[in-house]
Amino acid sequence: MAKNFIEELTWRGMIHDSMPGAEEHLLEKMRAAYVGIDPTADSLHIGHLVSIMMLRHFQRAGHKPVALLGGATGMIGDPSMKSQERNLLNEEELKHNQNAIKNQLSKFLNFDTEDENAAVLVNNYDWMKDFSFLEFIRDVGKHLTVNYMMAKDSVKKRLTGENAEGMSFTEFSYQLVQGYDFLHLYNNKEVTMQMGGSDQWGNITTGTELIRRVSGGKAFALTCPLITKADGTKFGKTEGGNIWLDPERTSPYEFYQYWVNTTDEDAERYIKIFTFLSKEEIDTLVAAHNEAPHLRQLQKKLAEIITITVHSEEDLKTAIAASNILFGKSTEEDLRSLSVKDFLAVFEGIPQATLSKDELKEGVGIIDALSAKTGFLESNGQARRELKGNAISVNKSKVKEDFTLTEEQLISDKFILLGKGKKNNYLIIVE
Question: Is 331 helix (H, G, I), strand (E, B) or coil?
Answer without folding.
Answer: coil
